[in-house]
Amino acid sequence: MSTLRFKALETLPFKDFRKDNSIEVPVKLSELFCQNVFSEETMREYLTKEAFQSILDAMKKGTKIQRHIADQVAVAMKDWAMSKGVTHYTHWFQPLTGSTAEKHDSFFTPIEGGRAIERFSGNLLIQQEPDASSFPNGGIRNTFEARGYTAWDPTSPAFIMGTTLCIPSIFISYTGETLDYKAPLLRALNAVDEAATNVMQYFDKNVTKVTPTLGWEQEYFLVDSALYQSRPDLVLTGKTLLGHSPAKGQQLDDHYFGSIPTRVMNFMKELEVECMKLGIPVTTRHNEVAPNQFELAPMFEEVNVAVDHNSLLMDVMARIAHRHHFHILFHEKPFAGVNGSGKHNNWSLATDTGENLLSPGKNPKKNLQFLTFFVNTIKAVHEYADLLRASIASASNDHRLGANEAPPAIISVFIGSQLFRVLEELEKVTEGKLSPDEKTDLKLNVVGKIPEILLDNTDRNRTSPFAFTGNKFEIRAVGSAANCAESMTVMNTIAAKQLNDFKKEVDALIETGLKKDEAIFNVLREYIKQCKNIMFEGDGYSDDWAKEAEKRGLNNLKTTPEALKQEMDQKFLDLYEEIGVFTHREVEARNEIKLEKYSTVIDIEARVLSDIARNHIIPSALKYQNRLIENVKGLKEIFGDKEFKTLAKEQMSLIANISENVSKIKVGVEDLITAREAAKAVPESQTQAEDYCNKVKPLFDVIRDASDDLEMMVDDELWPMTKYREMLFTR
Ligand SMILES: NC(=O)CC[C@H](N)C(=O)O
Hints:
The chain starts with a helix and ends with a helix. A hairpin with a 2-residue loop joins strand 7 and strand 8. 52% of the residues lie in helices and 11% in strands. The longest helix has 64 residues, at 584-647. It binds glutamine. The site of glutamine has 12 residues, from loops. Residues 87-176 form the GS beta-grasp domain.
């Protein structure tokens, strides 16, 4: 028993340090809230009135911060941070690598006479110039203009991690193109603010700002770190590339919402304390459906801050997990045969007068307002479904979509049968002017009924990629490893475009002499007719739905390369330019980056799988086969030619079976290597990704099937790979 698997398992027998790693948690978590954040309250304390007002204006109205104010803010930030033991600062940003980036610089500055001081200035706060040549740029940056800039985003508060002051920032190229997730998101958020505020003038002239909100739900797996280290596939790819499913998985539904294992609870508690200090308002924790799968969710926040908080959280989670001897898996499908992990994005729009625009109100006017934003959102998804699909595309999410409570790749909208009936009523609204009777009927019996309906809206559909859940839309298709900024940029861009179009159409009807409400009803009626085909209430996994969706003209972009190809449609390029979110060049660059990433991920998986198959699986299978051969030989020696044939029948069939699977693996690996090399040599990224998807990836199954069969034959004591049972049920 010399394999890594057994060494890892030996460390497990629940040594005390693994069991009791609990920390003291104050009863009032609220006391910790924002302790490490340069929050509004802290700013009020540390800044002059003028500087404080200027930051508030920047946050709320997007006004520019003047240089002398930035200097004051920098000094205040430094003083506050130093009072908490901070020595360094960093522009904290989110490049297209998928993780966060930080380069720490010290406040320490030598001055004349062998002396030194701690210094931080407005210049350094506003802009940094990281050596950025190694970040993904999709060909935007040539090496001769390799500089990139990070610029302070005053709309997301600075925070302290360890002994470093982190300043949320955007990341752009020397030539001004965005190279991160935040910069385009901010553009999309501004666009939807403007569009929604304009539409709100029909309903409430006091509204001067609309802020999109996001509440994400983060699903994840925890695996004992020793077991994790024993699986080269988990370490190098974040997922298991082989492994027979255990007899017991999630069939009994006994993990979901079950009592949280002590060691996990200790991890969660420490995590929550850290989140509180960082101002991440986490409120919910529970066991998810798959064994060793969990979820954490905060209160919703403004989208920009929510996105930053999610990126920050993922970083913090990984670190705290290590302290509890866990490794956290954010991969969307680390284990075959059980649920994968999503990051459902709950999206809505909030006004500066305190209203949620996707929540129906107390009177017919408010309900028409609700319907306006509700129908426009559905219409936006209808028009730009493929873009939404592309925003959630990744090699890892491909494994998750379409099974185990994750939605399929066909984008549809679920609103529940009762709201669906309301829309059907609205479809019947008369064209042009409405009679007084019809108006009253609409007010009382259709629009007026909405609040009641929603009170009773218990419909849930876990197979829907985009579901209305009473006062928000839940984008269920987003993967657990994704940066929510991607889907949020698309969501807010398409909502902005749709609301702009709506405003134009309603205004045009008002010009022809219709009353405002009549004009709105008329436009909504047409929208409902146009986008009915994207609404679907049934089972998203059924073959019937795939057929029906095709009839309805909805795309079923099953794989990332298909989705990314669609992203380059002229309609989408024009949309981005019109709303001012991306230039054509930026979209092309991002598309290129995603394609390259896809191919690279599959390439790495192919290599890891080949290595494991040849260096771990085949040798162990042969070792066991040799044992069997020895056994057969022994039987022959003892019992003689005739009798041994009956006695050794099982062993001989096993020997043959092992050989068959070993050859399948051997041939599979050879084919995989050939296909991988061919795909690697393809120069054009789209074709290359398609080759990796269609010619390389399918070969994984051949190897995996043979290996998983062997796992069931080979003596447990000789099997080198830590088993699913061990990874999923060690807590
Ligand atoms: N209960 C749930 O909502 C499960 C969701 C599922 N884990 C997903 O992949 O999205």
